[in-house]
Amino acid sequence: MKRVIESVPNFSEGRRQEVIEEIVGAVRARPGVSVLDLSSDRDHNRSVLTLAGSEEALFDATMALFDRALALIDLRSHKGEHPRMGAVDVVPFVPVRGATMKDCVALARRVGQEVASRFKLPVYLYEEAASSELRRNLAEIRKGEFEGFPGKIRKPEWAPDFGPAEVHPSGGVVAVGARPFLIAYNVNLATAELSIADRIAKAIRHSSGGYRYVKAMGVALEKRGIAQVSINMTDFRRTPLHRVFETIRSEAARYGVEIVGSEIVGLVPQDALLAAAEHYLRIEEFSPDLVLENRLEED
What we know:
It contains 9 helices and 11 strands. By secondary structure, it is an alpha+beta fold.
């Protein structure tokens, strides 16, 4: 079986289209890697790439990504709603087919070492590749963001896993890791009051007593004049999309606010959407075998 790993690098540019195109173009030019999706957001000022390929293909593509991003992005002049600490902010590797989490951990470590050596960038390993429990949670690593990292990196417990113990002047630091599939899911509210989105995010995220596999924060979408609950679903099987959506709807109603829509950033597993269809349509004895395309693939 051909080994396939997914990578979902996030880089800190969502407004300058020419910069985004140059960075993504450098990735596309690397042989053996498939660019499955690109999502850019002006308010977040961030882009999310979804790549797939072998270890070697992803290694080469990641180096090309860092080369262009560090040349074109300067965090000293970067502003956006999404927390960030690096020009290339995070690079996760996810096992898809014929590869294991152990393979992804090995790739994360290899990429981290090379990025540190080649680009003189501090690298932190996270999730399954983490060197300590303190670094498993990406939010803990990112806390303080780019502006706060010069002080943070001097603390012994926050010495980087690879690279210099000094923040790159324009590129910041980066987290590289291995993890299960994550769904980036946003719910948009019919209000511009960020405080409402903040309170709803607090109600659903695990760190505040909400759902175990949910990370969330409130975000202001200034261009649209609305607030958003921005969510990372770290295990959609244990905490499904529809359960989180209904909780947000219920919480929003307490403030007299409706949901205007939701969005997926990047790609989503079919099973996550089928679970939502089963829930809302109340299909009895539901099975993925009922889906036409699934049956065709079996032939």
